[in-house]
Amino acid sequence: MNNEKVALIFGGARGIGAAIAARLAREGYRIAVTWVSRPDRAETLVTSVKNAGGQALAIRADSADPAAIQSAVDATLHHYGRLDIAVVNAGVLRLGRIEDFQLDDLDATLAVNVRGVFLSVQAAVKRMTDGGRIITIGSNTAVRTGHAGSSVYAMSKAAVAAMVQNLALDLASRRITINNIQPGPIATDMTAAMVEQITAQIPLQRIGQPEEIASLATWLASEESGYMTGASLTIDGGFVL
């Protein structure tokens, strides 16, 4: 069991982040999750973990705000006294063709999906136990063609993949590994209205489940993954378009 280890999940109140948090809690990790717009989801998750005998903490933190990111790390350390795992799941999806794409949407995407990822990793590793784990949640759009209007989102996720590959070199001396999960279409609030359309583009003929991403994240958080770092792992049912 991992009952001494602490995992902080940025963007952990719902969807993939919540599935990762719940799975890590079942594996014995003490968890902290950040939320920005759904306190009810965060509290439901925390209550569920506690009712099952685990430890959980919800922290309001906008990943577009550097001070909030730092505060989330500080709150986790204050509550638990250590930090072993950081999962950077927070992200935004702004779509639009280049002729119409708004500067505010470009700035918002980069602020959360690129700058927010870098700052979350930076804040976490400064306080992380040597031998810890960093896991980012990217997207298969970094390596697959998505659809018209997704260029800015894809760009941001490709940036995360490149960042992870190189941050692995910065962190190797402390035996901290960093890896990037690149999910394809997953059954979340974001995809609820498009399941049939999306499924037609997936060779396995089904949409992925958040728990499948959580399973991979749990392995990356474990001691068993200690020789993997700087990798981007695509999990998308063979998505093609």
Automatic annotation (TrEMBL):
UniProt-listed Gene3D superfamilies: NAD(P)-binding Rossmann-like Domain
For this UniProt entry, the molecular function terms from Gene Ontology, in alphabetical order, are:
oxidoreductase activity, acting on the CH-OH group of donors, NAD or NADP as acceptor
Report the Pfam families cross-referenced here.
Answer: adh_short_C2
Alphabetized InterPro entries for the sequence: KR_dom, NAD(P)-bd_dom_sf, Sc_DH/Rdtase_CS, SDR_fam
- Source domain of life: Bacteria
Q: Which residues form the Ketoreductase domain?
A: 5-184
Q: Which family does it belong to?
A: Belongs to the short-chain dehydrogenases/reductases (SDR) family.
Under which name does UniProt file this protein? SDR family oxidoreductase
> Which source organism?
Enterobacter soli
